Amino acid sequence: MTRVRIPVLILTLAAVAGVALVGTSAPEATGGKMTASANAFLASLTPELKTKARFDFNDKHRTAWFFTPQQDKEKKFTRKGARLEEMTADQKKAALALLRSGLSAKGYEQATTIIDLENLLLELEGPKGAMTRNSNWYFVSIFGEPSSTGKWGWRFEGHHLSVNYTIDKGEVVAGAPILFASNPAEVKAGPKKGLRPLPEIEDHARALISSLKDDQNKLAKQPKAFPEINEGQPKANVGAPVGITADKLAAEQKATLLKLVTAYADRMPEEFAAAEIKKVTGTPDEKLYFAYSGGPKPGEPYTYRVQGPEFVVEFLNVQADSAKTPANHIHSAWRRLPIDFGLTE
């Protein structure tokens, strides 16, 4: 099989994904936007809400991230932070502006679609469902003092959505974990029938899986599903990479793999995404892995990972949705290795 190193495909990737590789100033520019948005959000809050939103940079809450429902036996929320539900219209607008500063236009659209799905889940499950479904149960936390001189971070989080950033001296040093999930993965009935909030991360994966030859499939396919994404702590704990390496893929298959990874990076602001993708395209072929379990056809449970030395993409579609449709419930995450949140250990 002809060996085509990943860096050769950078221009192809940029053309397909619309991501322009930029200079080292990009993380600073993105960090500046986040700083301004965070300060505007804090300035909009009452003293009571500001107390809920603000934490020390080293507070344990910073790395205790969750995308699953967090509630007690009385179905009351247990997440920390300032809650959209208790904000005025202007405060909520400022909170969403902070979220927008950490996402691309497409990523922001997907994130707000995920939030809106809470209303659909409430319709499907009813008020007596086991989980509280509330599109205003999304929380904002600011860690440290937003500035261009020190370290600080922020999180926007609720059910099926967790966006985390760390900034140091005005530069974004970590955009991880970023988790998007969708229940249902595809709306099967009603006015929103056909809606797929996260189509690319399935379509490109299925295309790659379907393209694998028998010898490639023996390397890529795993006997067991990958475990659920490791929330609540800064380490993904995914272990050593498994599967097929990029040097064993044909050029077209490798291009599909890069489209898949780019679909995750495309959630981030364009400038920062370009810096992250540059790390991926600079990964030696023999150190970039793709692995999956299950079947690629709609309705079949499956999981996959794309893993390199500095990052891992995790995906699961193994649960039924709230309407009991099999394998129609996605969890997907972009994480840094060996550790998230700009930490070194």
From TrEMBL:
Pfam families: DUF3500. InterPro entries: DUF3500. This is DUF3500 domain-containing protein. It comes from Gemmata obscuriglobus.
